[in-house]
Specification:
single chain, mainly alpha
């Protein structure tokens, strides 16, 4: 979860405090990180600081970027789990809807609409 938060924070240009607020109050973000129940996975903001401090210390001592390694591992696991033969791949509601190409906005809209209707 912390790796996912760190990635989303960087991609969206958020501060730690903004990312923490997003995690606490954005149901979609919590869902994307695998939390299906409110209150599940709650943590203190200091946890982000300690996490980053430990990552930085490891990078200085060992020269390894653990965030990059974790991202690569998770990505590889998901590609294997969903049997995606070529990237990019898009999974909605645990089902591969596209693989090996970038879908059109109309296709994505249709898939999302269908997914919302079945939930």
């Amino acid at each position: 979860m912390l790796v996912g938060l760190e990635y989303l924070k960087t991609v969206n240009g958020l501060t730690d405090e903004e990312m923490y607020d997003e995690f606490c109050y954005d149901v979609q973000l919590r869902y994307a990180l695998g939390f299906r129940q409110l209150g599940e996975g709650d943590f203190d903001l200091r946890t982000l600081y300690y996490f980053r401090e430990r990552l930085s210390r490891h990078m200085q001592e060992k020269g390894e970027n653990l965030l990059d390694q974790a991202f690569e591992q998770v990505t590889n696991e998901q590609i294997t789990e969903y049997n995606i033969m070529s990237t990019p791949g898009l999974v909605i509601n645990e089902k591969v809807v596209s693989s090996g190409r970038i879908p059109t906005p109309a296709e994505v809209t249709t898939w999302l609409t269908n997914a919302l209707e079945t939930t």
